[in-house]
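Protocol step 6 of 9: fold each sequence in the batch and record its structure tokens directly after the sequence line. For illustration, a two-sequence batch is reproduced in full.

Sequence one:
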Amino acid sequence: MNTDVMFSSKTNEWATPQWFFDELCAEFNFTLDPASTHENAKCIKHYTVDEDGLSQDWSGETVFCNPPYGRETKKWVEKAYFESKKGVTTVLLLPCRPDVSYFHDYILPFAEVRFIRGRLKFGGSKNSAPFPSMVAIFRGNN
């Protein structure tokens, strides 16, 4: 297992396993992936770091977001919460970290939480992530 990368901050991008996205998409019918690269985007409509999905308006979309993990994660959770106030449903794939402030400030009181059994294998990796994952669902008009 290449723990040097997985336990470091060399990368904060973890490509979503296709099968996992497909299961969620069958339920939610996503139209936007605002935190992707052109190579790992899960929706035709997507934003890369250059297009800055945090600064875009997500109105009229159903959003799947696997944001960069690390210090930026809080900004994506906050964005999902505020977009839900405008009627946007956003499903976030996140590391399961119930000890962080954004979990208590935004996820616990306003989102549906689904804990993932086992550990996901991101980006075609042969090894599972060194952290558990969860899904936070902010439904429009919360």
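Sequence two, same batch, same settings:
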Amino acid sequence: MKCVNKSIIDLRAKPSTKSERVSQALFGAQVKVRQPKGEWCLIETPDDYQGFAETKHLSASFPPIGSEWKVKELSVSVHCVATDQVLTRFAFDTRFFAQSDGDHLIFALPTGEEGYVPREAAIAAETTQDMALLEQLARAFMGTPYLWGGVSSFGFDCSGFVQRLLHFCFNVWLPRDTADQRRIGKPVVLEELKRGDLCFFPGHVALYLGDGVIIHSNRYHNGVSIDQLVEPKDAYGKELLRDFQGARRVTFEKLHA
């Protein structure tokens, strides 16, 4: 096992920076190395997704110290304990082991430096949330840029947005891609949609918020937006309704089992 040593890294379809970005991995993620290829290696991330990453962005895993936390802000600056300079930024849902020291969470970085983030920027990793907070969190990402292959608050694609939100709230991994996400849970028709249902369109997924609206990271708005799916008034909403292919309701307790 190796661990991601940068705030976020790209996974590529082929071992080249010119190759398509297929996904990403956040700091601290434990990955399996499948095919070392010099400066590149094929890795498998915790959601069972594979892609090529640059070897320099991976370090040997080290024993965890303290308890595990996850970032609850859209992003947070990591400061050096010794100099107080900003070393990097952690994205939403970044997981890390740290010791609490008053107002700070202190942890070791792969560089050997000690870093810290404000205690209020993170919560215990095992914490789960309810659907009301899921909606609140989802709305906080309004305007976040669309990024093909993106899975972080620095830029999402559609399935990466849904996957990241549900991982933070329920500590479960949905499949990475839309085609695989539409195979989980049970089918739901438009008239029976409930908050938290996954809504599907050709090559696209959105999260239903209730009251006829969805939230999704999309190319049309080039970012995360809220759009009317039920009884839409604008042209894009009508296009979404026309292309609606059904929804799935996920029982998170079953995913935990």
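Proceed to step 7 once all outputs are recorded. Observation for sequence two: Residues 158-170 form the longest helix (13 residues).
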